[in-house]
Amino acid sequence: MIYLDHNAGSPPAPEAASALQRVLAQGGGNPSSVHGPGRAARAELERARDSVARAIGAVAGSIVFTSGATESVHLAIRGVRPAGAIVATNVEHPAVEGALAACGREIRRLDARRLEDALDRSLEGAALATMPLGGHETGDLLPVREVADRCRARGVLVHADAAQALGRVPLDVRALGVDLLSISGHKCGGLPGSGALWVREGLDLEPVLGGGGQERGRRGGTEAFAVQAAFGAACEGLTPDAVERRAAAMGRLRDGLEREILRTVAGVAVNGLGGPRLPNTLSLSLDGIDGHELVIALDLRGFAVSSGSACASGLREPSPVLRALYPDQPWRAAGALRVSLGPSTRPEEVHDFARALRDSADLLRRT
Questions:
Q1: Which of 25, 184, 250, 317 could form a disulfide with 69 if both were Cys (CB 3.0 to 4.6 A apart)?
Q2: Residue ranges, CATH 3.90.1150.10, the chain
Q3: pTM of structure
């Protein structure tokens, strides 16, 4: 099986697997306990916290470990203390949509195609603006820094969903100018069940999970230090230079794949805003083909891809993101296919995939 669904989750990096085995071999322990095993668990947790922080240009004390990006965005969106509306785009991940639905506040929507047209008006009286740094379906890189500057001028906090960006583009929270940033462990070589929220110094949050006061009172519950240790190990190699090299390599593969598909596959279009994208992500739509059926056909040929967000993959509804981007072209959402590369993807794999996509599309159109 050739795996081309890294936006759903990348395989664990060797460093992450080694860290997990090492920590599990040490035996049990609770990071809040004062005895030897507890101190050892606490040391592993804090080592991971430091590694995750350095990967995004932050300090360790600003990192709140969570069970993943979903919990992270819920803490950011539902934990904001100032009263007021929340401004969001129409291309959010289902996790963000869930947090917006649960926050009990007025939600104001911005059209990602014309993000700046109504931004200033939407920020009046708002408490928070949230937006994806890298789109989970199309890979579009949104202008987070520019939006953050305008939000700051109006006293509005900014949250960026960077779950898809960590390890694929260099991240520096200070350069982005945001107040909150969500990241995921299993997108960058860590394990499912690991994630974090970066919180700007001095910003207070209301905990979504109350309990024993862990994570400096911002997230109750015994920390899963073993999976966070794996997360930290996966982040240790994510220096700006290393990420730049990885991004350049994946971008060359993605661009070559895109050219070959457009040249050899009939009735296909590339989805997105037409600007910068995550270097590993290619969103396609095939006219006259059901995206779910195409995923199954490709799976039978040995290729793992998706028709959209894995969090909604069990649903047969067309992609809400593509419906928002192309309201007058319903076939774009119905025939969607998301291909997402990883550090281990090889040139021959993307070439073979392009051929399999052509053959699968031809077969589905005939039948």
A1: 184
A2: 2-9+240-366
A3: 0.95
Residue type, 351: H
Element containing residue 64 per DSSP (H, E): strand 63-66
Give, as one character, the DSSP assignment of residue 208.
S
**For domain 2-9+240-366, which architecture applies?**
Alpha-Beta Complex (3.90)
The amino acid at residue 170 is: P
Kindly report the CATH number that applies to the domain delimited by 14-235. Answer: 3.40.640.10
How much is the pLDDT for 310?
55
User: Could you give the CA distance from residue 320 to residue 4 in angstroms, rounded to a whole number?
Assistant: 22
- The rounded radius of gyration (Å) of the Cα atoms in the chain is 21
Residues acting as catalytic residues: 311
Reply yes or no on whether the pLDDT at 36 is more than 60: yes
Instruction: Give the mean pLDDT of 348-354.
Output: 98
Query: What percentage of the chain has pLDDT greater than the value 70?
Result: 98
Give CA–CA dist 16/297, Å, rounded: 32
User: Is 31 in contact with 41 (CB distance < 8 Å)?
Assistant: yes
HSE at residue 267, side-chain half, CA atoms within 13 A, is 16
Cα–Cα distances (Å) from 39 to 17, 29, 31, 46, 232, in that order, read 22, 8, 6, 10, 18
Residues 6+ apart with CB under 8 A from 346: none
Q: What is the mean pLDDT of residues 192-215?
A: 94
Q: Can you tell me the distance from the alpha carbon of 91 to that of 327, in angstroms, rounded to the nearest whole number?
A: 13
